[in-house]
Amino acid sequence: MSSRYREPRLEDMLADSIVKAVMEADGVDPRELEAELRQTAALLRPMRHTPKSPEAPQESHFPISPIDQPSTHDPP
To answer: Quick one: which of 10, 17, 36, 73 is 20 to 30 A from 42 by CA?
Structure first.
């Protein structure tokens, strides 16, 4: 990281020893994860730089996945 307040780069996060250990324990392929994260970033980048209209509410262009929805088994 070059700046004190800057977020770490993807390469830095994936190179972290703890992150590597967790990915290995979970059976995550680091190359596949990196490719998926870069693809997601590329899809989100145009939305991030779109000027917002003050009178129009911003709606998500992505549906909520089942993982984002509360489970009936979750405590209140």
So the answer is: 17
Per residue in 1-29, pLDDT (tens digit) is 455 778 889 899 999 999 999 999 999 99
Q: pTM for this structure? A: 0.53
Residue 66 lies in a domain: no
In a domain, 37, yes or no: yes
* HEC secondary structure over the chain: CCCCCCCCCHHHHHHCHHHHHHHHHHCCCHHHHHHHHHHHHHHHHHHHCCCCCCCCCCCCCCCCCHHHCCCCCCCC
